[in-house]
Write a structure and sequence with these properties.
Blueprint lengths: L4 E5 L2 H6 L6 E5 H14 L3 H32 L4 H14 L2
Antiparallel strand pairs: 1-2
Helix pairs in contact: 2-3
Amino acid sequence: MSSNEVVILLSLAEAREMNVKIVSVSLPVEINDRIEKIAAEQKRSKSQIVLEAVEKYEFDIRWAPIREYGDRIAKKLGITSEDDVEQIFGRKAQSSR
């Protein structure tokens, strides 16, 4: 491990309270500092912050193909802003009445 990396460990108390596995993760010091800052600001553990980051990452991966499809359709239709979307749906809603 280089000098600019740190190891994050779940505490034994956290492991006993939840059904968790204690792991060690090497991170650049700057990333650890950011995690610690966020945890302190949110009054939450570093483990909670890392867990939410992983869950968000998984969510983003699952939805990436759908977002890419939406981007392709928007480009094809010339949609470049939320105003464009509102105009399109506004016209469709009015024309269907």
